[in-house]
Amino acid sequence: MSLLLLSDTRADEIRACLGKWLASIGENPSVGYLASSADPTREYFQPIVELYDSLGAQITAFAEPIHGPDCELYEPLFACDIIHLCGGNSFEYLHHLGASGLDERLKSFAAAGGHLVGVSAGAILMTPDIASAVYCGDEPVVPFQITQGLGLAPFGIIPHVQDKAALAASLKVSETPAALYLMADTDAIELRDNALHTTGTPTLIAPE
User: In what order do the strands lie in the sheet with 180-182?
Assistant: First the structure.
C-alpha cells in the first residue's frame, strides 16, 4: 500500500512529486478516478486526465459514488493500479462512500497493496477523522455529518493552509486529539510501508 496526500495538483513541485510517485509504481500505471459526487459535466475530471497523461499514466476508469452497494459500475475502478480521490465537500464525499459501500472497498483495496492518491477532500478522507475539513470551508450539513474517515493514514490534515503559523497558534490542543499536518498547496505527504516522506514543509501539530 502507498498513499499520496496532496493539497492541490497545480504547483510544479507537486506535479514532479506525483510523477516520481507514479514512476515508483510502474510503467504506465492505470488510474481510476472516483468523483466526490455526481459529475455529469466532467468539469473537474478533464484536467486530471491531462495531468496523468503528462506524467505517463492513464485514467482508465471513472466512477461516481452515488449508486447502491456493490454496483457493477465500480468494478473497473478496483481493477486499476491507482485510485484517485478528488476534491469536493469532504462530508458529502464520505457520506456517498459509506452509502455505496465504497469506504470498505477502498480499505480492502489499500490493504491488498493498492495505491491511493487523495487531493484536498480526497486526502482528508484517508485520515481517521475528517472534522478538520471545516477549516477548508466544508460544512457538515444534514445528512452529511459523519466524520469517521477511512483511517488509512494515522494522522489528520488540513489542506490549503496559507499561514501555517497563524493557524497553528489558533488551534486548541483539545481540537487535535491525534497528530495533525497543516499543508500548503506546495506540500505533499507520502506514506509507503509505514514510512512517511514529505515534499515541501507540512507542519506537524502534535497532541499533548
Answer: 156-158, 180-182, 203-205
Cβ neighbors of 126 (< 8 A, separation 6 or more) are 3, 5, 85, 116, 118, 149, 150, 152, 153
Q: Give the C-alpha distances (Å, rounded to integers) separating 45 from 74, 122, 155, 207.
A: 17, 14, 28, 37
* Closest residue by Cα to residue 90 from 131, 49, 47: 131
Note the Cα 185 to chain centre separation in Å.
13
Tens-place pLDDT, residues 159-193: 999 999 999 888 865 455 579 999 999 999 999 98
Grid cell 493514514 is found at 153
Q: Are strands 58-63 and 115-119 parallel, antiparallel or unpaired?
A: unpaired
pTM greater than 0.90: yes
* CA 18 to chain CA centroid, nearest Å: 13
- 124 within 8 A of 131, measured Cβ to Cβ: no
